[in-house]
Amino acid sequence: MSAEEIRPDSLEKALAALREAIGEEHVLVDDRTLADYGTATFHTDHVIPAVLRPGSVEEVQQILRIANEYKLPIYPISTGLNTGYGSTVPAKSDCAVMELKRLDAIVEYNAKLGYVRVQPGVTQEMLFNFLQRENAPYWMDATGASPKHSMIGNIAERGFGHTPYGDHFAHIAGFQVVLPQGDVIRTGFGQFDNARATEVYRWGVGPHYDGLFTQSNLGVIVEATIWLMPKPEYMQFFACSVGRDEDLSLLIEAMRPLRLDGTINSAMHIGNDYKVISAIQSYPYAQAGDKTPLPQEVLAAKSKEWDCGPWNATGALYGTRAEVSAARKRLKKALKGKVQRLQFLDEKLLWVAEKVAKPYQWVTGLNLTEMMKMLKTVFGMTRGEPSADMLPSNYWRKRSLPDVSADLSPEKDNCGVLWIAPVAPTSGENAETIWHIVRDTMLRHGYEPAVSITLLTERTIDCVVNVSYDRDIEGEDERAMACHDDMLRQFCEVGFYPYRLGIQTVGKMPPRTPEYERFITGIRDQLDPNRILAPGRYLD
Ligand SMILES: Cc1cc2nc3c(=O)[nH]c(=O)nc-3n(C[C@H](O)[C@H](O)[C@H](O)COP(=O)(O)OP(=O)(O)OC[C@H]3O[C@@H](n4cnc5c(N)ncnc54)[C@H](O)[C@@H]3O)c2cc1C
User: Fold this and answer.
1) Per-residue model confidence as pLDDT tens digits over 72-95
2) Rounded to the nearest 5°, which phi and psi values hold at 358?
3) pLDDT at 91
4) Which mutation among 74, 157, 175, 387 tests ligand 1's pocket best, with the greatest number of atoms within 8 A of CB?
5) 8 Å CB contact between 75 and 534
6) Roughly what angle, to the nearest 10 degrees, separates helices 248-260 and 428-445?
7) Rounded distance from Cα 155 to ligand 1 centre (Å)
8) pTM check: above 0.85
9) From the CB of 387, is ligand 1 less than 6 Å away?
10) Are 280 and 401 in contact (CB under 8 A)?
11) 250-268 pLDDT, tens per residue?
12) Ligand 1 within 6 A of 157 CB?
């Protein structure tokens, strides 16, 4: 059943039933709201007939039952801050957006076993503040995106952060899910009403299927159990860089055994010069003589100003003081002669560095104050502190920056952002292959090849690439999308598929195997015969 089959009279009837079910004030159909929810950081012309804001699990169930009755497709979002992947915009036109922000309870905090059960409206900031208030001996893991984004929204996309708990889906133990026709289930041991280990033993018994509800349209996650990381006795942040572009391979090869044997036991990030510069400042139009992409001499000048190399690695070591000291020795030995400026930083040193930043700047001319700001943000993220400091990077190509103290909205401010994040087995050769595709394609299309490479798991690298542009410039939407599509095609051709998909990829991914299609369509037919839930989102 497709969205086109909704006749106007049934839409009106559906809206009337929805108003009855969740209250008139939570069924929004005014032009302003629909335009806002229909705006991503790239062109889309998807029509949204309504925005629905349920306030309870029962209301989510009612919405889905009404949607089935009137064949009204529903697109669930948690906080809708999926910037660069579609934001609040559904994968296909004519879907009502169901925003779950009002379900914002931290349902349970278990101080003994270190977990929380949260609803989709619980944001990074809310959980962080809660743990602070409770004086919890635990850290959450935070992403570099907004403090206001949902914990569940990110888990639903299998996003990642910076600590040893950085692979978010790997640190949950079960969901409560509303199925497309309105039934509610708990996964894992939650299949038994009286099970007592549901929150601590993720596999339950029998088929394990939590993954079916991430990156899919097979259910609406209304609760997740998130495991928290016990605060380590000691953490030491480290940073280093390589002096030549072609040393990327060397750096990855040096880090690979350390990530594999657990010397480095957290997601570790490597950003190139373009990435570092665009995180600190906006496009230097004056220095570049208004030319884009960034001229090489300006890139070189900026790299000098911000003291970064072509590739810059940051990460952290966690454990007891003795464990960190041993890991530090192994790290130093493995990187000896291969990297420049290997520096270690802990809380005390950070404090001292902040104090000397100003005088150091007067003496050396290096803008250490600004560099400290960024360093502090990244340092904070390695211990699970959410930050809004990365948000201005969405404005890289904009000529004017909004007041950064205000709540930034890249969508409303016409920022162009398109992310692609291919995954590869960890090797220098693979990193180089991806980097060469990114560099050659983006420069050819006229954009800065800003890239970060994360040693996300013990065995994989995840490269996050961002096409950043100004939507106010005529033709840029089309040009940027052509660049995105060109890269996506090449990544898929060499076998490095993205770890998640934005709505901009609908209809652009290569065909999956017929066996997979049969398997997944069978499940979908069973759960959602009317194709009510998020048509086009990962599955057609
Ligand atoms: C500057 C910047 C930095 C970023 N850094 C990171 C980073 O470090 N790590 C990272 O992972 N991402 C990052 N992102 C990407 C993105 O902003 C985050 O992943 C963010 O968490 C997604 O937004 P959200 O949590 O509001 O999810 P939402 O937008 O609410 O949801 C995302 C998608 O998940 C599905 N979904 C959401 N909720 C549910 C539900 N309850 N049930 C079923 N399906 C659901 C929907 O398909 C929805 O479109 C970054 C983005 C920017 C712009």
Assistant:
1) 999 999 999 999 999 999 999 999
2) -65, -55
3) 98
4) 157
5) yes
6) 140
7) 8
8) yes
9) no
10) no
11) 999 999 999 999 999 998 9
12) yes
